[in-house]
Amino acid sequence: MKITRKIIAAAFAAALSVFMTIPAFAQNAEISVYVNGERLSLDESPRSEDDRTLVPMRAIFEALGAEVKWDGDTETASASLNGTTVSLTVDGGVMLKNGSEIALDVPARMYGDRVLVPVRAVSEAFGSYVDWDEGEQTVFVDDRENPMQGTVVTDEYRYPNYDGSFANVHIFDKDYSEFFGMELLQITDEQGAAYAEMINSFKNAVPSANVYNLIAPTAAEFYAAGGYQTHYTPSIRKIYSRLSPEVIGVNAVKPLMEHAGENIYFRTDHHWTQLGAYYAYSAFINVAGDTIDPPDTFSSEDIYGYYGSLTRFTSGTGGYDLLTRSPDVLRLYYPKVWYSGRSYNDMYLSDYIKSMSLVSPGYGNYNCFIEGDYPIEVYSTGVENGRSLAIIKESYGNAFATWAVNNFETVYIIDYRKFNNYGQTGEYTNEFSISEFHELTGFTDLLIISYPVSVTNTPEFTALSAMAR
């Protein structure tokens, strides 16, 4: 039906919408649309046609910076961005990109007073990247490739039975015999946006250094039963979409998913194992332009009957009784290179504490890795490549850091919880500024590694932010 130019112009000014190929079973679900990590406010709920999901799209064009025009006589929508012009005519089977025809699976449509055009075809024509998260029912459009692009977390390793929450530790089991304690944490869009802005501040503070960000998922991402999934993957993706192009996000989810059948997380501890940390480290070192040998080429030893932090958290509850029925194996891997370690209380490296060891089996617990949490640990190594790495971390970084000495001449391990009055308790009064530390040490690479608590909890976020200057 022909609609007058005046009506179309008013309708087009109100909204321009598009559709995207998404599985048919998602037709009735609420679909969200994110552009460069920011959720679009849409004035019309998405709908479907012939197994194609339609979502409002004018906001996407505007978010990407495209100029949009409507020709009511020909019922043609056009959008221009950076020298590329895309045109689609209602009910036409092709899209024109700078005059060249591109066949469409489904043509542009008119639904009431709305124009609908295919989001993937249009967005990719402008050089954007489009992805679909089935679990979250979310369309992602980014103007540059996201490190999380195409990452899928499957359900094959999940523990199907939920036994309850004990002191905020959620316990799952397989066949009522193998018990697994997990943290179920959620990252909101607002928390993720604030975290990304803070990470960008680190790059602004040390513009000459290579800056990386790695957000580590907890075990729940891969093992929590249906209905309890944490969906960190889309949350991490949104954060990485908001990072400066000069900050490199590291996809740790993909290699962890690929190895989820291995012992990559403790069942009685909230941390990953050193093997799990290895897979995350391998993702980091690859984007940093280097490689690390396979884990089975490193010397290792096992400590049996390990009960971790979650048994301490659940002490005196029924959760403790469940977790102690599933003791962990604490496997330790030793570096291949020579190293010498020492710890300090201050960023000037003048208040010496003690000599340090990367892997110390005598502790018999997670403190085997870098001997636990010290303000700053410095490791000099036998590597000769001119590169030095500063790692800003909480305890997830401990097992991770043990691998770094294999690739860097010097490794600085900084626990942000030991500076800048963390927790406002008056215990950690020493100041730390990443720009001043860079001036003092000249590190070439900076990695901020966080697990969800660093993103969501105010004391952790505040202390980490205080370093980004």
TrEMBL record:
Keywords: Signal. Residues 34-140 form the Copper amine oxidase-like N-terminal domain. The keyword Signal applies. The keyword Transport does not apply. It holds the Pfam family Cu_amine_oxidN1. Residues 1-26 form the signal peptide. This is Copper amine oxidase-like N-terminal domain-containing protein. It comes from Candidatus Monoglobus merdigallinarum.
